[in-house]
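Our collaborator T.R. sent over the components below with a one-line note: 'Predict the complex.' Nothing else. No constraints on interfaces, no templates requested, no preferences about which chain binds where. So this is a plain run: every listed entity goes in together, and whatever single assembly comes back becomes the starting point for the next discussion.
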Amino acid sequence: MPARLKLFLPLILFVVLAAFLIRGLQLDPKELPSALIDRPFPAFQLEALGGGSLDKRAVTGEVALFNVWATWCITCRVEHPYLTELASRGIPIYGINYKDDDTAALQWLADLGDPYRATIADREGSLGLDLGVYGAPETYLVDAEGLVRYRHVGVVDEKVWTEVLQPLYQQLLSGESL
Amino acid sequence: MKKWMLLLAIVLSGPALAVIETYDFSEPQLEQRYHELSQELRCPKCQNQNIADSNAPIAQDLRKQLYLQLEQGASDDQIRQYMVDRYGEFVRYRPGFSGATAALWLAPAILLALAALVAWLTLRRGKRETARGLSEEEQRRLDAMLGPDEDRP
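Returned assembly:
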């Protein structure tokens, strides 16, 4: 190796390392891709909040959002008004009431409005476990075939909807593959 | 005084005992495997803790699942697969070998081989240079720099 090039070796090493570290700073380690992407929404048979029962067939068949929420989840309260707005625009949203108390959940919907087509009462968190839920709120985008296509962890707000979820939702609606 | 200290210790140790639930296993081997697997599975919520250390609700749920599956006779691999199917490779502190993890698994061996190669090259060059000794020209310059013989100690 020419002696001159050797002199630049530390600089080259530094630049390579810095490039990796800068990339690392931009990645969010808390953002986990769902293990269920492009796989079927898990089969389940659970009661509906407020009576009746629900299974996978009852809630799939069109492109829809599945929102995991609970009354003990503070950030769910933050995103609730925006979900109500999305529902009023005609976006189908199903609720998964995750490890919650039915009475408290019904009271919540009575007080704050009910944006959900139906709410699955997942009291034991069994559906949540099959979905890979690790903290509410989480929102899953499920296509007409019942495949999970995207998961968003955290609050769905105007920014998340317009920048992330809506483009995917429109794509799925128009029948394009992602 | 001693009695009071003991009482204080008991009162203060209460929360420590309450943190992690205990399970009764039908066989001691299952308990052993429970401990090993709960050390190896990572809590999806708290990220840098395994499910044995974490007290997040999700870690509790996963420990319960682990217990139930062990009692149902699932193998270690089946349990790992169950968790990976739901939470992704992320939940394993010891991920399986695949295209994405190849660099992770092979890096130590490659780096060791590289270090051995560099060490070998360096040693070989060092040996050659000492064996060669000084040329006449170099010896003359060295003598000139060191000055006349009588000055040396």
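Summary for T.R.: The first helix of chain A runs from residue 3 to 26.
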